[in-house]
Amino acid sequence: MTIPRELCGKGEGFVSSTRVTYKLAKETTMKFPYGSCDFYDIITEGYFYMDRTDRIPLIEDAGKHLLFLRPRRFGKSLLLSMLENYYDVAKADEFGRLFGHLKIGKSPTQLHNRYLVMNWDFSAVEPQGDPRSDTEFTAQPYQRMHRTVQGEIQSHCQL
C-alpha cells in the first residue's frame, strides 16, 4: 500500500494480518482500517478515515433513487455505513463524536439524524439451496430478513 507523504510524513509502513499501520518518525502510529467497513468502529477506535462527508449534500440533492456502481473493495459499504450513522435518529446523541471533526460536522444538513435506519446485510445470506425443495431454497433469505427486522425493531423501540 502506498501512503502519500503529505498524509504521513517520513516513516516506514508495515502490514499486519488485521490492519495496515504506518509508523511515523515521532513513534506515533496511524491505524488504517484494512478490510473494515464499519464507520462507527473506524471513528470511535481512532482509525484513519479519509473524509468524504462533504458529498452528503450532493447525495441529498441528487434525488431519491441512487445507484452506486463501483468495483469491489472501493468503499461502497463504508459509504453506506457513514450515511447510516449520519441519518439514524438512534445516533443523534453521538453526532458530535462521530462527525464533529469532519467537514459535515461543521455544517450539517437539515436531514441529519432524522430517520429510523434499518441496516440490511445480505452478505451472510446463502442464495443456493436444494432447488427441488422450495422451502429449503427460499427459507434461508427470509429467515435472515426476519431476524434483521426483529433486531432493528428492538433497537428503535427504545427511542
Description:
With 159 residues, the chain is mostly helical. Helix content is 39%, strand content 9%. The chain has seven helices and three strands, in the order H-E-E-E-H-H-H-H-H-H. A three-stranded antiparallel beta sheet has the order 1-2-3, with no helix packed on it. 8% of the residues are buried.
Provide a short characterization of the protein structure:
With 159 residues, this protein is mainly alpha-helical. It is 39% helix and 9% strand.
- Rg, rounded, reads 19 Å
Order of adjacent strands in the largest pleated sheet: 1-2-3
How widely separated are the two ends? 42 Å
Shape: globular
Spans of 5+ residues with little confidence (pLDDT < 50)?
1-19
- What is the strand content? 5-15%
For the secondary structure, the number of strands is 3
**How many strands, which pairing sense, and closed or not: the largest β-sheet?**
3 strands, antiparallel
Total helical elements: 7
Helix content: 25-40%
Mean pLDDT: 78
Order of helices and strands: HEEEHHHHHH
Structural class: mainly alpha
Question: What is the element layout, followed by pairings?
Answer:
Layout (H helix, E strand, L loop, with lengths): L4 H4 L2 E5 L4 E5 L4 E4 L6 H6 L11 H7 L13 H12 L7 H5 L3 H4 L27 H24 L2
Antiparallel strand pairs: 1-2, 2-3
